[in-house]
């Protein structure tokens, strides 16, 4: 496979944390922290796909490549699809990796893990998950569960994603983490599809792909990266980076 195009979608006005991509974390905007982790993964070209010139300027001031996209996109998937066509119209990159812009502590190896399932040509989309070890999170609908069948000791083929506690019975539960590696054709197919019934019911975009018959394989990683959605999350991220 050719090297992927890593895209970091960033929207200026998050509901719970306004101007979130520009939030300062120990002297650097959060979007720059995420970009640095993406570079450290050493997968290939990394571009910030943003909806506002303020984000683009902040990213470029630290050496990042940035592209402006429409402010009207409903999802990060739509944003990265536009960005991919803007920065790579010749389709030199066969893989597009969607890395959320609010995970400043994500480990480079976790980013690489999302890319790994695409070594199987039958897989359309690669992503990641981690085992849920704390019992209080097993029934938390904020922790999206992966239901899958093993294809190796470190990977499953996704059968379903749900906010419910599933599968039932004895055994581990796995939290899905929203980092996606798409084959370019799969991304194009995905964004052209209307929202699916189960997607709307569970409010989980990845179900659209499964309902359309696309294959998603999920790599197991050691732990979940903390995403930043609130001021309290931001304080924890700052403390963690300051302690490094």
Question: Would you mind describing this structure in some detail?
Answer:
With 244 residues, the chain is an alpha/beta fold. It contains eight helices and eleven strands. It has helices spanning 30-40, 53-61, 76-87, 108-115, 184-192, 197-202, 206-211, 231-242; strands at 5-10, 24-25, 28-29, 46-50, 65-68, 95-98, 125-131, 145-152, 155-162, 174-183, 216-221. It has a nine-stranded mixed β-sheet with strand order 5-4-1-6-10-7-11-9-8, sandwiched between helices. A two-stranded antiparallel ribbon has the order 2-3. A hairpin with a 2-residue loop joins strand 8 (145-152) and strand 9. 41% of the residues are buried. The mean pLDDT is 96.
Short characterization:
This protein has eight helices and eleven strands. With about 240 residues, the protein is an alpha/beta fold. The strands form two sheets. A nine-stranded mixed β-sheet has the order 5-4-1-6-10-7-11-9-8, with helices on both faces. Strands 2-3 form a two-stranded antiparallel ribbon.
Question: Secondary-structure blueprint of this entry?
Answer:
Elements: E1 5-10, E2 24-25, E3 28-29, H1 30-40, E4 46-50, H2 53-61, E5 65-68, H3 76-87, E6 95-98, H4 108-115, E7 125-131, E8 145-152, E9 155-162, E10 174-183, H5 184-192, H6 197-202, H7 206-211, E11 216-221, H8 231-242
Parallel strand pairs: 1-4, 1-6, 4-5, 7-11
Antiparallel strand pairs: 2-3, 6-10, 7-10, 8-9, 9-11
